[in-house]
């Protein structure tokens, strides 16, 4: 198994190319339309067959044409938000990739339809943990759902599980469940009520600054 990270220019988005080298099958997680030439080159360089395009979340309303461009890759698109021609998996569904499989977790909160993808001891969780750092949506669509998704889905995984985020915000792109559970600036060492109150206060402050 192999993972390649793609750092998109402009707004710090991270995409991932997962490859089962024995079978030559690959999956893309959160590819960006602006990175299409690089993606095509990476697939061609290693003669990989693209099996899946997996989206943890989307901001297509802010970025028109993004989904249409991704369709040109020719692989099934998997996402949580209903859209014609995409696959919307249930929580716990598995997607085959060579001799392995990718497990889907429904983790709403950042957006209403967020998904996370588990591949062996790795979880690709998009912007789920990047509170305040997503350029398209700084604050959660539903803070209560986000808290539940993080604490009940992600933080219950084994301590050594590797977490791959959707934004390159803190000069590193991989952490562990243990580290995030202990040190995350929003989720660690606080209760659900504390978290919700803090998010509400930050949103109020941001609105006052914009007024």
From TrEMBL:
Source domain of life: Bacteria
Metallo-beta-lactamase domain location: 12-167
InterPro entries: Metallo-B-lactamas (IPR001279), Mito_Persulfide_Diox (IPR051682), RibonucZ/Hydroxyglut_hydro (IPR036866)
PANTHER family: PERSULFIDE DIOXYGENASE ETHE1, PERSULFIDE DIOXYGENASE ETHE1, MITOCHONDRIAL
Protein name: Metallo-beta-lactamase domain-containing protein
Taxonomic lineage from the root: Bacteria, Pseudomonadati, Pseudomonadota, Betaproteobacteria, Burkholderiales
């Amino acid at each position: 198994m192999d993972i390649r990270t793609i750092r998109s220019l402009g707004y710090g988005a991270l995409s991932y190319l997962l490859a089962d080298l024995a079978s030559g099958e690959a999956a893309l997680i959160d590819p960006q339309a602006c990175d299409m030439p690089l993606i095509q080159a990476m697939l061609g360089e290693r003669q990989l067959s693209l099996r899946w395009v997996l989206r943890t979340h989307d901001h297509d309303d802010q970025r028109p044409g993004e989904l249409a461009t991704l369709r040109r890759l020719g692989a099934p698109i998997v996402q949580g938000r209903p859209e014609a021609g995409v696959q919307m998996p249930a929580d716990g569904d598995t997607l085959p990739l060579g001799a392995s499989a990718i497990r889907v977790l429904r983790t709403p909160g950042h957006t209403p339809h967020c998904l996370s993808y588990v591949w062996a001891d790795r979880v690709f969780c998009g912007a789920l943990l990047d509170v305040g750092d997503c350029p398209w949506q700084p604050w959660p669509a539903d803070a209560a759902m986000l808290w539940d998704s993080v604490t009940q889905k992600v933080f219950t995984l084994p301590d050594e599980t590797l977490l791959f985020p959707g934004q390159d915000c803190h000069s590193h792109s991989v952490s562990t469940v243990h580290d995030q559970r202990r040190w995350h600036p929003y989720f660690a060492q606080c209760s659900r009520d504390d978290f919700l109150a803090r998010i509400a206060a930050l949103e109020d402050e941001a609105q006052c600054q914009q007024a």
